[in-house]
Amino acid sequence: MNLTLYLTENCNLRCSYCVREKCPHDMTEDTVRKSVELAFSAGDSAGICFFGGEPLLRKDLIYLALDLAQKRSEETGKPFFGKITTNGTLIDSEFIDAALKNKMTVGLSFDGAMQDDCRKTADGKPTSEILIRKSKELLSRGVNTIAMGVVSPDTCGKLFESVKLIHDLGFKSMVCNPAYGEKVTWTDEALDELRAQYDLIVPYLKELFLQGDEFRLAPLHSKISDLLTGNDPSRYCHLGVRQLAVAYDGKLYPCTSFLHLPDWCLGSVEDGVNEERRREMAKMCFIPEPCKDCDLKTRCTNSCGCANILNTGSPNMISPMQCEYERMIIEHADILGDQLFAAKPEAFVRSFKGRF
Fold first, then answer.
1. How many domains does the chain have?
2. CATH number, position 163
């Protein structure tokens, strides 16, 4: 079973687009222990992603969970997979040692050249120099690290510069998503600028590919891979099926976007998963009615309940902005894919089949 542990609702940064309230609520050791047991209670493997807030504010809970998970893995024979999403500012050598020992994947929240515009400390200080230093430490030590960028209407003009910076630091993968929520307003002008940035990014990625560089930028590369392998991204989000989120108080939800919403609670680490409720919730995840006649419906994340509830308040209603964004990404992914295949067909198939 895959769980996302929301270790703390506190954070040492104040990102301008963040949808989370900062609260002094932390998970207890008992809840961590029960979460690990739940992760190993079903399925052929166990996965835990540490999340927040800023999870590295509670390194003690991370180390506890990792120790317990490794012991349960040895006892059950089930492989354990650890991940973390962190703003990176609190990374130290002890954490890097633990990440390497447990073969963790680190999702580093780093916006590249856009970092100081949006991701500042609680007292308003910039963080880009810290993130560059921490990135180099992680990558030089061989930690499997993915840059997780967020592009907002105010910073989208720096996206191309940001992608280049992330690549030049030595990252092999970057995931970049648009900012959502009530703090963000995407205007037509901002979307036009975002499109112009992707017009610059496509030839840049093509040149890297021709040089044999394996750098990957999602969602462009993932759209190409999905098309090649027949994956339908509209089916990725099955509420409460692929994973569960554990709130600091031990209650279970289908995703971190639904934390503390009573109607979306699926049980607790104490009482277990309400399977009947989970089955009901999974049925609620479907292609929105306005999308059913769209030619791109099987290439779009239109049924992502997380994004939809942040944008429209409904898990099955996509916002006009999300629709425009998906069309933009698919268009640029197809342009990139066509150019790469035309240039090096064998390398293209070898590179993309099964990736992402």
1. 1
2. 3.20.20.70
